[in-house]
Every structure is written in C-alpha cells, then in structure tokens.
Amino acid sequence: MTMPQTRRRFLQSGSAIVALPAMESLGFRRFASAAAKAPAAPPKRVIFLGFGWGVTETTWFPRMDQPGAAYDLPEGLKPLARHKADFTVVQGLWNKFSNEGHWGSTMWLTGANRYAQAGQSFHNTISADQVAAAQFGRHTRFASLQFTASESAGGSGHGPGLSLAWDVRGKPIGGQSTPLEAYHRLFSKDATPIEEQQARLAEKRSVLDTVLDNARDLRRGLGKQDVDKLDEYFEGIRDIETRLSKDEQWLGVPQSKTSLPEPKPGLAGRDEIKLMYDIMTAALQTDATRVLTYRQPVSTLLTSLDIKVHPHDMSHYHGVLGEKLDASQRRDTAQSELLAGFIDNLKATKEPDGTSLFDHVTLVYGSNLRTSHNLDNCPTIVTGRGAGIRLGENFVAPKGTPLCNLWLTLLRGMGVEAERHGDSTGTISELTV
To answer: What is the pLDDT at residue 153?
Structure first.
C-alpha cells in the first residue's frame, strides 16, 4: 500500500475515514492492520454538562453518612438507577473564590478569583475543557465544541459567559445555541468552491500579518501596564492563528456524515436537551471533536414541563413545601431522565474494537451552585470510563477540597499534561481506580 507523500494528500485521500465512524464494513480493520497490525486504541473524549439554579438539596444529594457503593439513591437521581454502578456522585467540592449566588457556570470549570486583577471587577481564567482541547484538539476538525442554551444566561442561572468555555486569556468562548445550529456546524457541507475558500484564508492571513506588524511597532516605548494589555492582545492573535491553521489543515476534507435527520427549528426545553445529547453522541462517533460542553437551559425546561414557577423563585424554595419545591423536584427528575438517556446512547454506540463510547469518555454533570445562593458542595456527577475514575460510589471529599482538584484528577486521568488547574492543591487519589 503506497502512502500519500504529504499531509494534505493524506487528509484528502483519507477523508472517508476522517468523516465517518471507523466502521469495519468500510475496511477500517484492513487499513489498520496494514499500518500497525491492530486497530488503534479509541481516543479519549470529555464532556461537561452544566446547569443553573442548582438542585433540590433534600432530595438530590445522597446521604453523606452513606459513602461508598452501598448508598441509597435519592429521589432526584432515581431515573439514573439503571446506571448506578456506572456513575459516581462527588460531594464536598467547591470553588473557594466563588461569591456570586446567581452564577451557576461562569467560574465552574475555571476556579478563578474574579477579583484577581487589581482595579477590575471581573477576571476569569482558562476552563478545564479548553485545557483538554489544547491536547485532544490537534487530531480533529473541531478542537472543541461549545453548545449553550437558547435562553438568556440570566434566565438560566448561569451568569456571565457565552458558554461553559473560557480561553487561555479568560475570555468567553461562544458556541451554538440551538440544535439546528449545532447540527449545521457539525454536518452541513460548505458548498463554496475550494479556490474561494483558499483565497479567503489567504486574505485573513494577510490581514493578520499586517495587524501583528503594527502591534510590534506600537510596543516600543509603552509602559508596563500597556505592555501587559498588548501581550493579552497578542494572545488573542495567537488564538486566531491557531484557528486559521486548523481551517487550512481541514480545507477540502468533507464534513462528517451522520444518520441524524436535520433538527426542526424552534425546539426548546426537554426536547432541545435530548436532541443536543443525540448530536453530541454523533459528534463523538464521527470523531469531529473530542471535547464538548453544553450550558443547558432551565427556564425553557420548566416551561416544557408545564411548570409556571420562575426558575429563580424555584431555586429559593428554602425547603418549604409548595409549588416552588415541587417545581425544583420535577426539574431534577427531568434532568436525570435526560442524563440517563444520554448514558444509554454512549453505552450503545460501538467503537471499531467492540468497546463503546462510554468506555473512553469522561462525562461530568453539575453546577457551581448547590441551591438558592449556596456555593459549597457543588452538585457533581462523574460517569464514563475515560479517566480511570471509581464509578458506582457516593464519594464525600474532605472539607475544603477544591472543585479544581477534581478537574485536575480527570485531566491527568485522561492523559492530559496538566501540572495544576485553577486553585487546585493536588489530585483526589481516592477517586482513581
């Protein structure tokens, strides 16, 4: 078998392998055996699912005096019963710098101190998903994909940000806000002639070079504070360069194929979340990306469940019986049912070597908010076998354990080279197999 001589030719000739799931009926095993005598090990993937307004404290968390595998599944997690052996509830974690009771996801994956920069009332740092994307994203068309709710951040209790993701400068990363947008981003063909695509990329490169030259000239004679601002600007330019390089790498390679039909516009709430989960499964199956985040809706979920209570009011039920508590518990049940369906999909989707997506993915489901304005004991579920985490347990961390210790544990478990993350003080060794 004669291998193509350039990377571009390899990508073009191998487009069917890149664009489609690596299926044995398409000769994948023969291709792999010719190159290495055995199929390559399936890659690691990571998914972060975040929601706002917390959970119902009294009926979502397992009892802390029942650590380990022999714990009673609380009412809010009952829909996950068939997967009990395959997920772990992690309790006692928090982001110590978090101080805003309406921000369910702004600092969730970063652990940043919003006041870390003098004279500024808001500061953030890189999120855990983007740390993974810097390593995993080298091999896929999309280094990461960010999906977000089609409702305002205020209505969903997430706080500032465009998604769950924040770049290396601590700037928000946007994404697709409806299933239709997500579908087209992943699977719609770009009908623009290849020559025109090349010309557009060349024009962007030219503009970028000019901007860099001007910025370097400007640097001379600036004070330290202005130099720091310019360095941050250069970081943004480097991000653009990375994206341009990615676009050039995949120029001419067809978009991934999927059997999913194109979503109908206008989906919201429960149907929106379910379809987003289906699209995320397809994204991993086709290896379009290996890093996914989804900032989920809450207010439209309540509406789809015929709940009239405002989501903010629902989160302030304060343990009192009534329509607020009922709304909160019904929300928990619906979210757990949807998560259970997603896990079903991951287990049912097979890899070329006979394993499943579930065997190679790390999925985190949670929020920076516990309930009301409480920011300690962040609700956290970890599932999937991609990071070597002990599953099937109710794990209660020692008091004061940073949430970022979990992120660092997962990153290292997936093989991501990370020395620390956010305010981490180390990994949680008791969680690993």
So the answer is: 52
Helix axes 270-285, 323-348, angle to 10 degrees: 20
Quickly tell me which residue has 């060794």 as its tokens. Answer: 429
Q: How far apart are CA 159 and CA 146, in angstroms?
A: 16
- Nearest CA to 146 out of 163, 158, 134 is that of 163
In the structure encoding, which two tokens stand for residue 19, read together?
Answer: 């664009």
Query: Where would I find the beta strands (DSSP E) of 236-314?
Result: 291-295
Between helix 403-413 and helix 128-136 the angle, nearest 10°, is 10
Q: Please report, for residues 86, 234, 267, 382, 433, the alpha-carbon distance to residue 390 in angstroms, rounded to integers and kept in the order given.
A: 9, 41, 36, 9, 5
- Give the amino acid at 267: L
Distances (CA, A) of 105 to 54, 160, 161, 170: 10, 8, 8, 14
Q: Given this model, what pLDDT does residue 10 score?
A: 33
- In the sheet where 291-295 sits, what is the strand order? 145-148, 291-295, 45-50, 361-366, 380-383, 87-91, 394-396
Q: Higher pLDDT residue, 49 or 40? A: 49
HEC readout, 275-290: HHHHHHHHHHHCCCCC
The C-alpha angle 337, 256, 31, rounded to 5 degrees, equals: 110
Rounded average pLDDT over 124-141: 96
Least Cα distance to 122 among 100, 102, 104 occurs for 100
Distance CA 37, CA 41 (A): 12
**Interacting residues of 114 by C-beta distance below 8 A, sequence separation 6+:** 97, 99, 100, 107, 121, 122, 123, 124
pLDDT in tens, 337-369: 999 999 999 999 999 999 999 999 999 999 999
CA distance 366 to 61: 12
Please state which CATH number belongs to domain 25-188+261-431: 3.40.720.10
With contact defined as beta carbons under 8 Å apart, do 389 and 360 qualify?
no
